[in-house]
Amino acid sequence: MVKIGIIGATGYVGAELLRLLLSHPKVEVAALSSVSFVGQEISNVYKNFLNKTDLICESADEVVKKCDVIFTALPHGLSEDIAKKAIDNKKICIDMGADFRLSSEDEYEEWYGKKFTQPALHSKSVYGLPELNKEKIKQCSLIANPGCFPTTIELGLMPLLKNSLIKLDNIICDSKSGTTGAGRGLTINTHFPEENETFAPYKVGAHRHTPEIEETLSTMANDKVNVTFTPHLLPINRGILSTIYCSPKNKVNLEEIHKLYLDFYKDEPFVNILPLGEIASIKNVRLTNDCFISLHLNHRQDQIIVVSTIDNMIKGAAGQAIQNMNIILGFNETDGLNLIAPAF
Amino acid sequence: MVKIGIIGATGYVGAELLRLLLSHPKVEVAALSSVSFVGQEISNVYKNFLNKTDLICESADEVVKKCDVIFTALPHGLSEDIAKKAIDNKKICIDMGADFRLSSEDEYEEWYGKKFTQPALHSKSVYGLPELNKEKIKQCSLIANPGCFPTTIELGLMPLLKNSLIKLDNIICDSKSGTTGAGRGLTINTHFPEENETFAPYKVGAHRHTPEIEETLSTMANDKVNVTFTPHLLPINRGILSTIYCSPKNKVNLEEIHKLYLDFYKDEPFVNILPLGEIASIKNVRLTNDCFISLHLNHRQDQIIVVSTIDNMIKGAAGQAIQNMNIILGFNETDGLNLIAPAF
Amino acid sequence: MVKIGIIGATGYVGAELLRLLLSHPKVEVAALSSVSFVGQEISNVYKNFLNKTDLICESADEVVKKCDVIFTALPHGLSEDIAKKAIDNKKICIDMGADFRLSSEDEYEEWYGKKFTQPALHSKSVYGLPELNKEKIKQCSLIANPGCFPTTIELGLMPLLKNSLIKLDNIICDSKSGTTGAGRGLTINTHFPEENETFAPYKVGAHRHTPEIEETLSTMANDKVNVTFTPHLLPINRGILSTIYCSPKNKVNLEEIHKLYLDFYKDEPFVNILPLGEIASIKNVRLTNDCFISLHLNHRQDQIIVVSTIDNMIKGAAGQAIQNMNIILGFNETDGLNLIAPAF
Amino acid sequence: MVKIGIIGATGYVGAELLRLLLSHPKVEVAALSSVSFVGQEISNVYKNFLNKTDLICESADEVVKKCDVIFTALPHGLSEDIAKKAIDNKKICIDMGADFRLSSEDEYEEWYGKKFTQPALHSKSVYGLPELNKEKIKQCSLIANPGCFPTTIELGLMPLLKNSLIKLDNIICDSKSGTTGAGRGLTINTHFPEENETFAPYKVGAHRHTPEIEETLSTMANDKVNVTFTPHLLPINRGILSTIYCSPKNKVNLEEIHKLYLDFYKDEPFVNILPLGEIASIKNVRLTNDCFISLHLNHRQDQIIVVSTIDNMIKGAAGQAIQNMNIILGFNETDGLNLIAPAF
After folding, report:
1. Which ranges form a coiled coil (chains A, B, C, D) (predicted)?
2. Domain span at residue B44?
3. Fewer beta carbons under 10 A from the terminal one: N or C of chain A?
4. Hey, how many other C-beta atoms are within 10 angstroms of the C-beta on B80?
5. Number of independent structural domains in chain C
6. H/E element holding C231?
7. What pTM, to 2 d.p., does this model score?
């Protein structure tokens, strides 16, 4: 069995990855690391693992040494050196943080306030949105797993952009995320009595996923795309839903666009285009690796509205990382990811 | 004391109006009506009224006869005839439904599927957004109390539109509402296990508040305004937050716009403009008649983002109706509405 | 592959059973029935099944004819005749309703207001709590799958009762359930704005699970057990937690009781006894077939407090039914039920 | 106007007290203190106070100097010295913490791990449950405002205990509280994704409210009362509901007990006894100073079940403190507390 290591296993993304990989038929999780909990069983940190695994948190170095595939689930700026070590040792590295998502170091510095620590490594990495880059991913050992918000927006717009159907100068992306997206760190905004029964945007006009979205959409369009991206925090645990507004270049027929989407994604196991008239909802995708998309026009029929939704912890993080691993290792793309959303 | 009647007192808007009016210092609720609960105490229907009032539901006719001010909280199409009777009898009528909100009967027929039953009455009604129409409201006996979504959007955009600062051809209004907006009627979408832990838009491109928004914004702009309006359902009880995207005609300075808003609303007791850098949140306004507005630019500084939030049951319905009543009766505009949001 | 049929597939229990069985490695769901949705795809009723199954709702008769194992997920009083037909045709029938749970027809009539329609069949049925009746279940074709509340209480008390350690005359069972326990039927109590942000007991002193609990506990104790059982409704979707208060016959040593529980359940794959000092929580078991139990004393050390928690839809319904099926068919008891609770 | 000071105004109890007092017709909040936010406007800490008050946090000493009535909302152990200073200066002091709730210093030391710092002061304090001690409160300048859980249990049992109707050796109090009870301090248990959609007890058999409950119930019974008290944390913001199980000394007639309760509380403005057959619910009391009580028997009619519910922040803290102030100052007991629960 392929030996898997998770670096940063006690954060939310790491813990979700562990949960999913423990049910994967073709791999074995061989080692975990955590800065804060070295020497402790993961089931001490998350009781849901009691009697499911007795893995103990080790150092990152141990994990790299023991494993064939290394997943890094770390705050930005901490993955590059680990990735270097992994790649130098002929391992596969899938980074679930932001370190390899932007190709431009200038852009990275502008939004993240620091330079690349391993600039040479970046050219070897591939942006791990399988529906966009599957062939490149197959050949690659270093994956930049996409951000959660960008995944919804990129999958939602790809058929329109690849077919040059919409204007590129101001696409509005109004996105809403559950609170797991904010991670395990305690903040007043995620203190239960403060977040429950309320709703608000955050980082308006300034969220770090903006350059990732613009770079990837520009690649799809083969031209510069500008977006206005506003994230909001929902008082639920899981799920992202993006409502995307774009202007068609020419008069639009919604049936044709719908057919285009169905055709575009017909071989993609995780992208589901809803029938016209239905509306995508977070509950369609919760606890799955699926992306559900529904298509709409405004009342004057001159504006396309794309609704795109995923589970932020799965297709937006851990599940997409496993999908990338499956592609690299030649497994079925859906291995370990055959998940059906609970209806309630 | 002025005698108040509520027609449709057992719906959510009617019940909220009753709760607020029971604490109003200058009026007395004298009669209630309900189609489904005639003869029953309102405290049988809503236990929160136990030992607070012993009012009993009567017929609508009784209410009109007994009272000086009639509030109608009814599904569309049912208020016109009652309003006729009230006005003919020199009473004041404040309609919290949709019957008098649109000035064009054609537009009304297109969106609501029926014609006006009292067309002559419509010219006597005023759209009851006090921040827009205060002087007209003072002179009027028949008020069309605004819809909840329109209130957020109209207050959010009025200073920009009155000053001709933005383009009018496609304003994006991405709005999110708590579930009380859907009322007391049982539906699968508001069944707890179906609505909890999820989020989705509804009536995309087709919500009946669209023509109301467009008519009022056009009045403000003195020119035709087009909007794309998408409502979403939040898994919370109360509150609407609208994220509004608009394009300035010329290069924008956010400080100047902020000053404009502060100045524009400086005499309005219920509109609060947040300091630049802060973001409006539903919890700022829950259980109050306030509207909180925050102002933002996107990262390229070429798109204005207005965040506007109210309590849908109060400023979006019952509270605004009381505000209109206060204005008509010459009371302090804030009488009965001096509410402070619970912090949690 | 064994052919499975679900009668009542569009209710919450039926739908959850379908979701779990679609991932079971050794069976095939061959047919579904529903009174309200005959002829419709199940994915029309529950969108989470879109692209996961194209099964269509048929009549109950068709299901019995086509399948080897019949699961009935029906309101009480409707399963007996179907079970008769299944058993007569040498099929296996697992009833997830209440029809076969009580051995006494008088007791059944007292609590459910009707008599048995197939009284002869009842002697052939076994109460399907595997931790109590595993050997009997292996030999049986007709299973009375336990109620959700009873499962928590029975698993929580079995080691104490089998070892005659507690008094039997008044055990207090204070139980709290998520709203899925109320099913898919619309009621004002489960209307989102009415149930959100509140909490209350229901059917105090009068819930129909009471005689089931008392009968099973009496079997365990080999003596008459009396309980006071109070169910409460939690504003969450899934999970039941019962806080159970009982008086030891003699002075208690908590460490010894804890060892007793660990030993009693050491071969049971789904019952987890938490270390002393930890407290069972619904999040330990959500979306799994597990039961977590923690053990405590009050501050004077003279009262045992057992906290027992399950997912009401899985160990409390669909999952336990599959566990029973696995036992009857000679599969691994955990087949299709190797589920790890999401940590968040 | 009477000048009010709040010491510890930035905690949840202090902030709620401020919110309520700003609407009180006969007092003026003159000063606030906070250790962490000295020099800052309270509206910086809680945006709900924006444009409602411009009070600035000062030192505790300043507050005592400026005000006539001092409310202390502090962690245990910090109020005694402040109370001393207030009393020495002929001020009124209402302590919302635990410092003066227990009469026995030994008991205090056992549960809180420290001794009294002002032991002489304790004999001057009165336990501020108005329904029990109204006459004493009128004469007193130092109030120990009751804990939130104890308030529900003491009001729920007082008529039974005062009339010697129940056994005293083991009353079971199964209590459930919203998360505001845990305060503003960040913990992993109140991190939104950890607390949402779950439910569990905490501090089983060991909560510090236990001795307060036992002391007060013993006073009522004029004999030693023992309780088993288990608090649970509900995924809601506000409200406590206690389900209380007690054994009658003799055969019980529920109608008689109900009449007894109605009569016992007939002059108490905040205690509401529901009609027989109805069940108290947190939504009856949210955002009010009310306590709702419903009465039940188990199915064998040999165990009384009392359901008692309050808003933990109001009748369980800030509202009850105002009620005590009203009594001491000779105001109407309901001044500033005429609150009606929102129905949704």
Report:
1. none
2. 2-145+315-329
3. N
4. 22
5. 2
6. strand C227-233
7. 0.98
